[in-house]
Amino acid sequence: MSPEAFGKVAVLFGGSSAERDVSLKSGNAVLAALRSKGVDAHAFDPAGRDLGDLKREGYARAFVILHGRGGEDGTVQGALELLGIPYTGSGVMASALGMDKWRTKLLWQGAGLPVPDYALLTADSDFGAVERQLGLPLFVKPANEGSSVGVTKVKAHGELPAAYAEAARHDPLVLAERFLSGGEYTVAILGKGDDMQALPAVKIEPATEFYDYEAKYLRNDTRYLCPAGLSAEAEAEMQFLALRAFRILGCRGWGRVDVLLDADHKPYLLEINTAPGMTDHSLVPMAARAAGIAFPDLCLKVLELAHVG
Predict the structure, then answer these.
(1) Cβ contacts of residue 2 below 8 Å, gap of 6+?
(2) Which CATH architecture does the domain made up of 3-89 adopt?
(3) Per CATH, the architecture of 118-178 is what?
(4) Each residue's pLDDT tens digit in the chain (309 positions)?
(5) Catalytic one of 73, 258, 268, 282
(6) Set 14, 15, 19, 90: catalytic member
(7) Which among 15, 147, 177, 253 is annotated as catalytic?
(8) Is 217 a catalytic residue?
(9) Of 94, 144, 196, 283, which sits with the fewest C-beta atoms within 10 Å of its C-beta?
(10) CA torsion angle for 144, 87, 25, 41 (degrees, to 10)?
(11) Global confidence as pTM
(12) Domain limits of the chain?
């Protein structure tokens, strides 16, 4: 599509979730990229604007680069559906499911896809039994947050109750997950229907205890390997698994599937991001570069896939 064919484009970023700061960085990068390609793109922060302004001010498309609740969980997607404004990324149902790590796991398990062993936690859980079930170390996280907000790595007996309390501050639904030691990877997905493709895998090697918020956005010593150092067969298997996971949730447009390997190098699905980061530390732009897609062209491709319904 020519830049003029997109019409007036709103880049939705900021918002009021715990990931606002990351969204601001992502949104500014996308806005600059679209403008560099001649698109009539404008910043739009739903935290201070009425979404109805999109219709009143003649916006033809919306690039959704809101992260977390209120932007990645199906709510803004539903509003844009009602307004009849084409938007980027997954639709209402897939966005809502992808935000909920527990229900995502249930769907993947139901389809026969591998996920790490996990347990739901409550204040009344038998924390000792959970430790015995999953082993140590293990991870505790809120089910409906991203960017590692509220995540704790539990390494010693007796630490689980405090980790649960920290996660529960962010969401009443809390997960404990088995630690897998074979490495962390991510696979970006781009396209829709039969044209959907998995981009090259990226291996993540944080210098911190795990890939937490600081390692993702603030530090410069996290290593990202792309090529990921996998055999051609192992990478193809990981990409195939990520595509299946993406399609099973009904996702479209673009996204990112995170994968863990166990000690025997078997892949397991960790979670999905339906509006991934687009900052200078982000993984989708990195994978796109490895596939020969420059950042401005990536943003244009995502915008081309905007839809209603």
Answers:
(1) none
(2) 3-Layer(aba) Sandwich (3.40)
(3) 2-Layer Sandwich (3.30)
(4) 899 999 999 999 999 998 899 999 999 999 999 999 999 999 999 999 999 999 999 999 999 999 988 999 999 999 999 999 999 999 999 999 999 999 999 999 999 999 999 999 999 999 999 999 999 999 999 988 765 778 999 999 999 999 999 999 999 999 999 999 999 999 999 999 889 999 999 999 977 676 666 655 555 778 999 999 999 999 999 999 999 999 999 999 999 999 999 999 999 999 999 999 998 779 999 999 999 999 999 999 999 999 998
(5) 258
(6) 19
(7) 147
(8) yes
(9) 196
(10) -170
(11) 0.92
(12) 3-89, 97-114+181-304, 118-178
